[in-house]
Amino acid sequence: MSREPRTEAVEKQTGRLESFSDGVFAVAITLLVFNLQVPHLPAGAISVPALGSALLKQWPSYLTFMTSFATILIMWASHHGLFKLVYQADTPFLFANGLLLLLVTVVPFPTSLVAQYLITPAAALVCAVYAGVFVVINVAYNLLWWAAMRQRRLLHPAVTPRQVKRLTRRILLGLPVYLLATLLAFWNPYVSLGLCSCLWIFWAFAFYERSPSPRHLTGGQDVEMAPKSEA
Amino acid sequence: MSREPRTEAVEKQTGRLESFSDGVFAVAITLLVFNLQVPHLPAGAISVPALGSALLKQWPSYLTFMTSFATILIMWASHHGLFKLVYQADTPFLFANGLLLLLVTVVPFPTSLVAQYLITPAAALVCAVYAGVFVVINVAYNLLWWAAMRQRRLLHPAVTPRQVKRLTRRILLGLPVYLLATLLAFWNPYVSLGLCSCLWIFWAFAFYERSPSPRHLTGGQDVEMAPKSEA
Amino acid sequence: MSREPRTEAVEKQTGRLESFSDGVFAVAITLLVFNLQVPHLPAGAISVPALGSALLKQWPSYLTFMTSFATILIMWASHHGLFKLVYQADTPFLFANGLLLLLVTVVPFPTSLVAQYLITPAAALVCAVYAGVFVVINVAYNLLWWAAMRQRRLLHPAVTPRQVKRLTRRILLGLPVYLLATLLAFWNPYVSLGLCSCLWIFWAFAFYERSPSPRHLTGGQDVEMAPKSEA
Amino acid sequence: MSREPRTEAVEKQTGRLESFSDGVFAVAITLLVFNLQVPHLPAGAISVPALGSALLKQWPSYLTFMTSFATILIMWASHHGLFKLVYQADTPFLFANGLLLLLVTVVPFPTSLVAQYLITPAAALVCAVYAGVFVVINVAYNLLWWAAMRQRRLLHPAVTPRQVKRLTRRILLGLPVYLLATLLAFWNPYVSLGLCSCLWIFWAFAFYERSPSPRHLTGGQDVEMAPKSEA
Q1: CA-based max dimension of chain B
Q2: C59 touches chain B (CB under 8 A)
Q3: Interatomic CA distance for residues B143 and D32, integer angstroms
Q4: Residues from chain B contacting residue A66 (CB–CB below 8 Å)
């Protein structure tokens, strides 16, 4: 009986925070489409080949659109995963979450910066800015997790130390890789951008590896679901 | 008792995924309005007939706005229908859903492409791109459903094989039609666009046919509601 | 016991529809801000009085922004009120709701049309379009309510005939007024726009008159809450 | 038993209002990113130093983006805090909330006004407008709280007079400060903007001070949670 009310409180306290965060993620990810601009051709020069080649020339837009979309999607999935372990929010946690959201809404800006300047002499700068934003996002992510887990204050009582350690490691992992991508930009912008484009595929697999198989769920042994299925 | 917790888990695991997806659908469908541009007339030439004819000349914008809106709406309804049968998410399902959302957010782009180039010599290309995007969306939809139903891993235990077969057929149906629309664009762009515009009306009726009548709902025989009303 | 599951089904079936609709309303109402454009002054001519007068000259933007915002807000409140009486959705209802949402997302377009052409010779046309959109929205609203109440198929069992009659009357009321505003636009655009601007204040009071006083709520006699408090 | 249904009613009546408000806050905060514009350089003049200096010159955009983001975030947190104490909505409350939302969606406008005119002779005006909008928002906030608490009509029965007094004082506090910032703009725009930029940090700490420590939560003595944990 002393357990039930506390579990209930989890939903109450972080529910509106999660739905607000979801809203920001959803809007930010959808605004990326403004990166895809309809090419403007002079009225006399409009033809299928002319428009076709104008559309193909915009490949940096398509590439960065997909990379940014996939990266925000992974960030959302990670945010979701982190909040599953958290049962309440305090002020530092709220502000770490706010910082993360600010950076998520910023993503469309470096995305269109790369789209417009990737095939110009300023490519090094825009790719460094692009990867640099992900470095800062990663720092914000680490801050959020640190705010949640310090002295285990905000974590659900059923979260195990092994789960904490695993997520800590997983979140820290991105930092050196995005730092590397930022530095690489000044050597070769395309390699830097390629690294950012590949990273989300890596996250997908890292995510996959720890994803519960449906079998375990009913057995109550799945780490992710433990807090909920035990209650 | 072994049934109850599992049913509870349905809400928990796909709840935030659904609300995030709803957010993306809602934003993408609302951003379509940017397709409707206020015509700019030179200050000296502003009059009721001049503005009226400028507004009427934008009919491709209105047509594609309505077609895209209706298509995203049907996609949302289908997404909603599919998620009713799913009781949990694994990584392939999450990423198939991510791909679908990416394509949903893309829709405003080919929509404004058609709006701007429908009455130009590049009409064939833009109509092919428009229908082509719906081909890819249909493929993503099939992927999502396949991720959900393979080995029945993610489906709610109460979903019947007949329901699975029916939805599989329904989702596959769109593929050849949108492929045809894509090919037709190179023969006659208007026929291609007309086919896309008509398709959603067809979906509406296909959807209607399988929609439960209110009478059946309380009897517990409705296939859609079965998982919930049985619990 | 035969009542409980049915009540539960209300939440399930219209829950995601409501949250999707809320998302569309929220995005559409927020996009209205794009109507407020920062004036561009030539670099040499920037001063406090110059910018101040440029900002004041934009008063049609501010007026239509506020009118459109208030109107969408009232529409959302009415949508909310209507859905309180509905306990499930069928296909005609879904599509009537879709039509209403389409028109809600359209509102930013006539809004910026009026903002740009109110103080030009084309004022009559843009004010007629503006009021005309609200006529069509009102028709969509009547359709939605008709889809909900025909043969009482989708209404909550506890909804009384008096409630149905009252809402029917309230929804029909707007139709002649917006029709009048549309026609008035060709006689005097300012009167037409003024009528639209005043109407939402009228809705607010109409809404107020029927709004339950907190006292009644716990007594279970409030018509709006009846379905819920009885269960 | 007479208590339970009333508590249930809280969720029902303000649930959709909160989620709609959250949607508006989430969209408005995300639209701020449009303040960050990609600089356009002539094709021949593109280089890392040229783009770098063009990006650095946009510092007013970055500063106002962050200030507006943080301020909307705090406003959302306060909105959230206020709604925790409210158990139902009447019409004046709905319209006070509507006014607040209107002003929240307006924020991107003065934000881009400051971004474009901060380093011009019109700086005084745009900073006064910027701070002035926050004055009006603060008034709307006071109205909302007044609508909620007058005669304790809408407050949850468990809310204590001390809580009411505390929140009243906290909300009134912002009014003189933003008024001061508005007046200061005509003396020194930078001081005015700096005051606005610092204020949200102050709100964060004011917020922190009253934030419940996790310890108290289970003891049921936390003021914020009291209504929920007692039920």
Answers
A1: 77
A2: no
A3: 35
A4: 102
